[in-house]
């Protein structure tokens, strides 16, 4: 049997690797901590015995097709004694082994059970490592057991090292997922805590990593951070003496370790300047005439954390208190940036940016990314923006005008709104506030033209993008789609082969949606575009209590956004010309017209796209499988199907070879 293996170099040794023979194929995509596999089996298109797909079957299949989670490796699966398949073999799935340094082989199947997915992730890889993976097919044996058969395929990949000083980009995602694995590791510390959720005090059972004994707390925080905290502290530590400056712009600022790292830089003689969000309101004084200014909770929490920092020398304490922080009071919205500029001898060198607030919840809780850009041109643009922020220039022009050019005009001059596709191998930076929110139309155009997108929306989807997801950009109104299944089907098939992944923080409220539609009849939201078959949607979720034998828990560190806080748009990430958009802005009108924000656009860097894509798939598959399982249990209350239990026949393959399903498109996309 012949086997072909092709490598697609991405950047400095990283690659997308394919291997195939006459029976099946594998496409491996390496990131930093994740390797994604697009698998395919040939000849199934002609097998009429597979039948057609119904919704119950697709839901049931999701139980066995789950991504089993981080740090779970297989037990009891043979790795070298694959047997020849008899005629009429039942194809039960795949076996995947990882060969590490020293020829150490690790089975990635849990308890010898087959992987019943054509898109699968190894979430246990480490950065900067070379791995060889062997992939075999598995067959059912006597309806209760499984074993490999036939020839195997091998692929070799090198994961990215984000700490490589010679690489333009260093990307660090935290774990962003707790779930069953978090409970297995630290479940003995699960307790009821009084939490602030959307302004209400509620008791919830969580595992707060700050509330554990010192050794367990350190272990839990390292596991949750997954290198994000270490990278942030390491970035700050590069400023080692008075020849350096650290120029920051922050929103939430309470993370003890980050604050301590900045303080240590002050003690080293580094010139540290941080523009911080400072908003509040004037309220009547209690029992007195007049009004007093009351800071909002974000401003007050940061002030308390800053004041709590100790110093060995009084002169450093004075510098910290009076010469480090710049209050951003005149932003037109919130000062939502989360970036740091590293400057040496007055030359901007690098930038730390991304979605990560300087809080425990930002680093150990909700999904976030820290992104280092080692590019002097980009750093200079951020420096120009920071200089205006440091002067506390108003975000937008006041009615009377005061002769000062406002931030929205300055930002438009730094980088005008984009028009058309970006040039290949380019990096663009965009800052807010801006005069208009027309960039939302540019994003909507990219979504509409793409073969595939991977999009995160922590706070909902803006109208221009939602209309494209809904199909209304093709001339079909939202209300018509809701009334007519025929029109909905037409809109779904207008882009044959297109697949759009949308990851939300939580499932939107139907009651809220109905109220909004009454006020604004033409608006489009999740309850419209979820029916478009080109959209595959997931949202943060835990397994419903009582529906699974596995308990899951959050950290309790986040007040509003528990699951997904990243602001990411990947356009045609699997192509040779991918576009990565990341930063602090939520693809909303407020993030463009009101808030202080920054966004990074990188076109044509397949290495960077692979990192973002593999992390996206990791999180999307985790949450999508939980939603599917919860839906299955709610529809089949008497079912005894266990979480993660594979089926013993070929029914799991049905939706992957039915052209009407999303899984069919997904198989073709990743293979």
Short key terms for the protein model shown above:
single chain, 671 residues, alpha+beta, seven-stranded mixed β-sheet, 19 helices, 29% helix, globular
Would you give an account of this structure?
By secondary structure, the chain is an alpha+beta fold. It is built from 19 helices and 27 strands. The protein has a 7-stranded mixed β-sheet, with helices on both faces. A 7-stranded mixed β-sheet has the order 21-27-26-25-22-23-24. It has a 5-stranded antiparallel β-sheet with strand order 1-2-3-4-7, covered by helices on one side. The longest helix is centred in the C-terminal third of the chain and has 30 residues, at 606-635. Residues 9-13, 46-86, 473-478 and 486-494 have low confidence and may be disordered.
The biggest beta sheet, please? 7 strands, mixed
Q: Ends: how far apart?
A: 20 Å
Please indicate the percent range of residues in DSSP E strands (runs of 2 or more). 25-35%
Radius of gyration over all CA atoms, rounded: 26 Å
Sequence stretches where pLDDT stays below 50 over 5 or more residues: 9-13, 46-86, 473-478, 486-494
C-alpha geometry: globular
Helix and strand topology:
Blueprint: E1 4-11, E2 14-20, E3 24-30, E4 35-41, H1 55-64, E5 91-100, E6 104-107, E7 119-122, E8 130-141, E9 145-158, E10 169-173, H2 179-186, E11 191-197, E12 200-206, H3 214-225, H4 228-237, E13 244-250, H5 256-267, E14 271-277, E15 280-284, E16 291-295, H6 297-307, H7 314-323, E17 325-328, E18 339-344, E19 347-354, H8 360-365, E20 369-373, H9 376-390, H10 407-414, E21 426-432, H11 439-449, E22 452-457, H12 463-470, H13 478-483, H14 485-492, E23 499-504, H15 510-519, H16 526-529, E24 535-539, E25 569-571, E26 579-583, H17 589-593, E27 597-603, H18 606-635, H19 662-670
Parallel strand pairs: 13-14, 14-17, 22-23, 23-24
Antiparallel strand pairs: 1-2, 2-3, 3-4, 4-7, 5-6, 5-8, 8-9, 10-20, 11-12, 13-18, 15-16, 18-19, 19-20, 21-27, 22-25, 25-26, 26-27
Helix pairs in contact: 1-18, 4-5, 9-10, 11-12
């Amino acid at each position: 049997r012949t086997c072909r293996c092709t490598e697609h170099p991405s950047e400095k040794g990283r690659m997308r690797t394919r291997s195939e023979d006459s029976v099946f194929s594998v496409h491996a995509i390496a990131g930093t901590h994740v390797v994604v596999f697009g698998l395919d089996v040939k000849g199934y298109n002609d097998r009429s015995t597979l039948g057609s797909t119904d919704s119950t079957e697709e839901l049931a299949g999701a139980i066995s097709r789950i991504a089993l989670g981080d740090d779970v490796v297989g037990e009891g699966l043979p790795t070298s004694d694959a047997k020849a398949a008899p005629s009429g073999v039942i194809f039960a799935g795949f076996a995947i082994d990882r060969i590490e340094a020293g020829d150490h082989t690790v089975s990635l199947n849990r308890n010898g059970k087959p992987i019943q997915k054509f898109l699968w992730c190894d979430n246990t890889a480490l950065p900067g490592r070379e791995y060889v993976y062997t992939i075999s097919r598995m067959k059912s044996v006597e309806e209760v057991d499984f074993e490999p058969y036939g020839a195997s395929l091998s692929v070799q990949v090198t994961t990215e090292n984000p700490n490589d000083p010679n690489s333009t980009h260093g990307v660090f995602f935290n774990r962003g997922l707790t779930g069953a694995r978090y409970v297995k590791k630290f479940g003995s510390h699960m307790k009821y805590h009084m939490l602030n959720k959307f302004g209400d005090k509620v008791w919830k059972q969580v595992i707060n990593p700050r509330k554990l004994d010192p050794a367990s707390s350190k272990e839990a925080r390292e596991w949750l951070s997954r290198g994000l905290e270490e990278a942030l502290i390491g970035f700050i530590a590069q400023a080692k003496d008075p020849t350096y400056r650290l120029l920051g712009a922050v929103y939430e600022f309470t993370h003890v370790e980050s604050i301590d790292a900045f303080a240590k830089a002050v003690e080293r003689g580094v010139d540290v300047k941080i523009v911080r969000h400072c908003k509040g309101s004037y309220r009547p004084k209690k029992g007195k005439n007049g009004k007093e200014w009351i800071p909002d909770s974000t401003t007050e929490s940061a002030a308390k954390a800053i004041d709590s920092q100790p110093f060995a020398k009084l002169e450093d304490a004075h510098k910290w208190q009076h010469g480090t922080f710049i209050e951003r009071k005149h932003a037109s919205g919130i000062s939502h940036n989360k970036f740091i500029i590293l400057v040496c001898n007055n030359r901007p060198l690098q930038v730390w940016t991304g979605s990560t607030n300087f809080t425990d919840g930002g680093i150990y809780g909700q999904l976030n990314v820290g992104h280092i850009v080692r590019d002097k041109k980009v750093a200079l643009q951020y420096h120009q923006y920071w200089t205006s922020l440091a002067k506390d220039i108003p975000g937008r022009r006041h009615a009377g005008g005061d002769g000062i050019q406002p931030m929205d005009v300055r930002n438009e001059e730094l980088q005008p709104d984009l028009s058309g596709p970006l040039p290949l191998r380019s990096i663009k930076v965009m800052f807010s506030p801006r005069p208009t929110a027309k960039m939302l139309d540019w994003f909507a155009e990219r979504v509409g033209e793409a073969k595939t997108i991977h999009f995160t929306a922590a706070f909902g989807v803006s109208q221009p993008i939602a209309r494209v997801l809904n199909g209304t950009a093709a001339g079909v109104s939202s209300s018509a789609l809701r009334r007519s299944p025929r029109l909905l089907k037409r809109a779904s098939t207008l882009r044959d082969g297109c697949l759009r992944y949308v990851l939300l923080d939580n499932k939107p409220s139907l009651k809220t949606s109905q109220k909004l539609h009454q006020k604004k009849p033409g608006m489009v939201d999740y309850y419209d575009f979820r029916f478009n078959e080109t959209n595959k949607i997931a949202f943060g979720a835990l397994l419903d209590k009582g529906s699974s034998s596995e308990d899951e828990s959050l950290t309790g560190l986040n007040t509003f956004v528990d699951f997904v806080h990243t602001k990411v748009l990947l356009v045609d990430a699997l192509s040779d010309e991918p576009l990565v958009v990341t930063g602090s802005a939520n693809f909303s009108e407020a993030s463009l017209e009101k808030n202080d924000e920054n966004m990074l656009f990188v076109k044509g860097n397949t290495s960077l796209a692979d990192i973002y894509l593999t992390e996206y798939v990791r999180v999307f598959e985790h949450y999508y499988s939980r939603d599917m399982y919860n839906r299955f249990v709610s529809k089949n209350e008497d079912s005894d199907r266990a979480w993660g239990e594979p089926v013993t026949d070929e029914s799991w393959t049905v939706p992957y070879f039915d052209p009407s399903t999303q899984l069919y498109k997904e198989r073709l996309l990743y293979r």
